[in-house]
Amino acid sequence: MPKLWNETIEAHRAAVRDAILETTAALVGTHGPTSVTMSQIAAEVGIGRATLYKYFPDVEAILFAWHERHVKDHLEHLARVRDQAGDPGQRLGAVLGAYALITYERPHGTELAALVHRGEHVAHAQQHLSNLVRDVIAEAAGSGDVRDDVAPDELAGYCLHSLGAAGTLTSKAAVSRLVNVTLTGLRPPRRPRMNRPAAGDHPGAELGTDC
């Protein structure tokens, strides 16, 4: 098969697959995951049922693929945010801020959310996310922007659990405050200040010696 023809076929298949994913998500958003059928999806996309079944075996498989693509897009977005920021401290703030906004904007408490979060891809994505945040934290700890008395993987868990609360907030301003509070918890602990000798005192004063 000629290369150009093969690329054209692959592009067509990718376009059809994307149309299936977006159409199914839209239908489920309107009618709920239990009310959408393969026949409805095929009709909305403009393909036959037999063609649809060549791509996916059922509605649930389509929804898992749709969610997997969105998760992949989110991870790629976080990686771009990390790479575009300046020093290690700025990279950490940018990544945590972007993750908090993703958490804030994604749907929560819906039938669709409950369904797609059962997919096997979710655990893999969570590990990828944890590793990304851990590595950014380790880099910031090396530059002195983050405390080094706690392991980076533990701090990554702290950040992800803390910012998970962004999904319950009602404004982006509240999300920003949550990010700031989380970043404050990562800062190096303050060292105790040493008391300076009073004016006229010197280290050997209480021993009665001269300086």
Task: Kindly list the characteristics that best describe this protein.
mainly alpha, 211 residues, Arc Repressor Mutant, subunit A, 2 domains
Number of structural units classed as domains: 2
Q: What is the CATH topology of the largest domain?
A: Tetracycline Repressor, domain 2
- The CATH C-level class name of the largest domain: Mainly Alpha
Strand content: under 5%
Query: What distance separates the N and C termini?
Result: 94 Å
Q: Over the alpha carbons, how many angstroms does the gyration radius reach?
A: 26 Å
Q: What is the 3D form?
A: elongated
Q: How many strands in all?
A: 0
The structure class reads: mainly alpha
**Pattern of helices and strands:** HHHHHHHHH
| Low confidence ranges | 203-211
Helix content: 55-70%
CATH architecture assignment of the largest domain: Orthogonal Bundle
Could you state the CATH homologous superfamily of the largest domain?
A: Tetracycline Repressor, domain 2
H/I helix tally: 9
Rounded mean pLDDT is: 85
Largest sheet: none
Summarize it.
The protein is built from nine helices and no strands. With 211 residues, it is mainly α. It has two domains: 1-57, Orthogonal Bundle (Arc Repressor Mutant, subunit A), CATH 1.10.10.60; 60-188, Tetracycline Repressor, domain 2.
Report on this model:
The chain is mostly helical. It has two domains: 57 residues, Orthogonal Bundle (Arc Repressor Mutant, subunit A), CATH 1.10.10; 129 residues, Tetracycline Repressor, domain 2. It is built from nine helices and no strands. The longest helix has 29 residues. It is elongated and about 80 Å long. The C terminus is likely disordered.
